[in-house]
Every structure is written in C-alpha cells, then in structure tokens.
Design goal:
Elements (H helix, E strand, L loop, with lengths): L9 H8 L1 E2 L9 H9 L3 E4 L7 H14 L4 E4 L20 H7 L2 H17 L4 E2 L24 H17 L3 E7 L20 H6 L3 H8 L4 E4 L17 H11 L5 E3 L6 H4 L4 H11 L4 E2 L7 H17 L4 H19 L15 H9 L1 E4 L12 E5 L16 H7 L4 E5 L4 H9 L4 E5 L6 H13 L4 E4 L11 E4 L5 H12 L2
Parallel strand pairs: 1-8, 2-3, 3-4, 4-5, 5-6, 6-7, 10-11, 10-12, 12-13, 13-14
Antiparallel strand pairs: 9-14
Length: about 500
Amino acid sequence: MTTLARPTDTLTRDALTVLQPGFVGTSAPDWLLRRIGEGLASVGLFGRNIASPEQLGALTAQLRAERDDVLVAIDEEGGDVTRLEVRSGSSFPGNLALGAVDDTGLTRDVAAEMGRRLAACGVNLNWAPSADVNSNPDNPVIGVRSFGADPLLVARHTAAYVEGLQSAGVAACTKHFPGHGDTAVDSHHDLPRIGVDPDVLRARDLAPFRAAIAAGSRAVMSAHIVVPSLDAEYPATLSRRILTGLLREELNYDGLIVTDGMEMQAIAATYGIERGSVLAIAAGADAICVGGGLADDETVLRLRDALVGAVRSGELSEERLADAATRVRALAHWTSMPGAADRSGGAPGTEIGLVAARRALTVTRGESYTAPLTEAPYVAAFTPMANIAVGDETPWGVAAELERLLPGTRTGSFTGADAGALALAEAGERRVVAVVRDAHRHGWMAEALTTLLTARPDTIVVEMGVPRSAPRGSLHIATHGAARVCGLAAAEVITGA
C-alpha cells in the first residue's frame, strides 16, 4: 500500500507527482526518499546509478519501501544507448540492426527479453523505443537509434517493440514525438527546426507513433523540436497544438505524455527549466523528465515551486496539473498490477540479442579477400565525438572480442586529419581492422580509410554506424550499431569463429 511520510497539500503533491527527477549515486539519497514520501511518484535512473543487477534491484527496493507503486524509469534502448550495461556495452542490438533484419517477431522477442531484465531489477518504465524515421542521413543524434528511413518499416517495428516490452510489465515510452529523424541539430545542444510540409510529416514521421498508439504504448515522449508547419512559435514539448491538438485529439492518444530532458539546451537555453516545465504541463505534457544533468533536490524544489506558483498566479490551471498527476498515478497503478506482465509465451532466451546481432550483419567480401584472420591484427578505431544520448562511457568496437578470439590483438583510437597515417604507423606489419562509425558523416574518417586502403588493400573495414558509404576493403562488415553483441558478431565473421 502506498504511504505518505508526511502530509502535504494537494497542489504541492500534484506538482511533485508530475516530476521524473534523477539523482547521483547507487543508493537513494535521503532527499529523494523524503520527496517520495511527500508525493513524488517517479524516479529516473541513468548509468551513474547502476553498478550491477543486484545493486539495481536493491536500489529499486529501497525506493519501493517508501512508495510501492513508484515509477522507476530508465533510458534503455539497447544498442548504442544502454544504462544497464553502460560500462560493458549492450547485450542487445539497437533499432537499426533490428530494422535491417526486418523480422518483427525478432524485434518483439528482443524487447520482451530486455523488459524481463528490467523488470527483474525493479524498473517498470523504459524511455524507449525511438520511433523516429531517420530520413536525414546526417542526423547527429538519432542515426542507429532509429529502425530506419522507411516509415512503414519503422512503424511495424515500433509496434513490435512496444508489445514485447510491455509483455514483461514494463511500460514503453515511445519517442520523440512528433519525430526527431529529419533534424541536422542535436537538441541536447540547440533547438532544431524541421521545415517539412504537414502532409509529409503526417505520412512519414507520424506513422510510427500511430502504430505505437495502436499497440498500446503506455507513454509517449515529446521532442524538443520546432515544426513550423504545426506550431511556428513553440517546440513540440511546449506546444499545445502538438501535444493536445495533434497527439491527444487527432491521434486519440490517452496515455502518459513525458517530456524529453528539460535540462537539454533546446529548452534550458531558450526558456529555462522552470518556465519550460510550466509551459509543457500547460501544453498537455503529464510528466517532466529532468535529471540527466541536473540531479539534485534543489532542481526538484525549483520545478515543484514553479508549478505551484504558476497555478496560484493563474498561468497554469489547477485542473490541468491535477489531470497530469492523475495520468502519472494511473501508469504507476498499471505497472504495479499483477496482470501487467504476460509471461505465458516464455522467455526467448538470454542469447536472443546475439542471435539478432548476427542476423543484422551485412558482409561484403572484396576481390582481395582470401580467408578469415588467424593471426592477431591491429584494430584501428576511428572515433567520432559521441553524442550525449550515447555518452562516452560505453565501450564499442571489435578489439575486445578479437583479443578474446585472437590473443595478442592490439588496438588504438584515432581521430582527425592524420588518423589514417597514424594508424598505419602504429599497425606496423600487422593486418589492419579499421572500425568506423557513420563514415559518411565524417570527411576525416573517409579520408583515413582511403589512406589505409591505398597502402594496405587487405584492410578489413567494420562500419558500426549507419552504413551509407559504399563497402570498401577486403572484407566489409556493416553491423548497424555498436552494441557489444554487434562487435562480437563482427569478430566471429572476421575470424571465421
């Protein structure tokens, strides 16, 4: 039974209820437990909060000792974006790999297994899947997080992912509405604009969200993007036309609307997090995600007081805040119901991620290809700057897996104009395995490959991003993502294991 540690007035409790804050540490700080006692209904977890499944289970139990229906949310997309396995790399390939296979049953099974692992640790809300149609190949923040560039493919896999995740009793939060795939700007850093005709947007970007809603997605996350054809003034997160008019009324969505992180610069640098949070709730959002960068009690109190103040000043209606809080509590109730998880189908198995990663490979053998590697190579990783959603904590590549299969493998990381020449110098006489990520987006990376292949035509190339460039090298492997299992699958092909 849910308990409140101390009485708080209804308005203040509702303001706390709509917040989804983060915190620092691997156990819950006293301030967080105190706010849960006062009405906070959700907590967001990040990589910094997770050391092991056992520790995570103890943490979520600690939270539920204060409130048994608390929503514990996480950003666990699989693939490049993982929090459960932030220091080792994911056991599941990401969306682009699943889209490349294009087997909705496999996508459903992968999401169900991920859901089971989350549920076993006490996590019941996943800020996933990404339903963005990656229509702009130069997109700096979506890329492999998307199932692909075909709206119908993205739609069917989004629906399968939602069904699989929620079969384990973990609520899906489909993102980033109304679609972040046609941007050339990362909303972590600035406010993107999508200058697309409304008919194109409805046919292309909204198709996966319609599918997610039909599949019963319990939550939808808004995007910090301006779509002038829908609302020339406000970004989607703050737009009543988009959240209420389009999502609620036109698409008939009745679940929880969650904002993307309010401390992202698209909002924080334009409206500020307090003003942004008030505008978001007024526009139709139900939950304010914050805590990736601002993860302390002061942030929670600032947002709580901003919402309470907006109601008291008449800027935000008390009814709208109460409605938002009611939707949060309704989702919390769903996750705590015994019937939320349907385990009748049985677990597809813990190796489902590796099975999917193997199936996602596209392997091209060049004229100079002879046989699998049998001697330890030199792995040259051409490393672009990681976007904030992925982070730079999570390892990627094939070096660790090749070292396991071919002991003595050496590796180095290179970037910039001299990357190819430096890699050649370090490799010496060893066979070179070049690992790239979105080579089509980085001129220096393409030049590095040219330098390598001119000097060493037998170079093996592994593309772990979006494979837009033509295959090059004696052996070219497109993994469609940089999850640990993608690296393992590629290493198996390289060595013939």
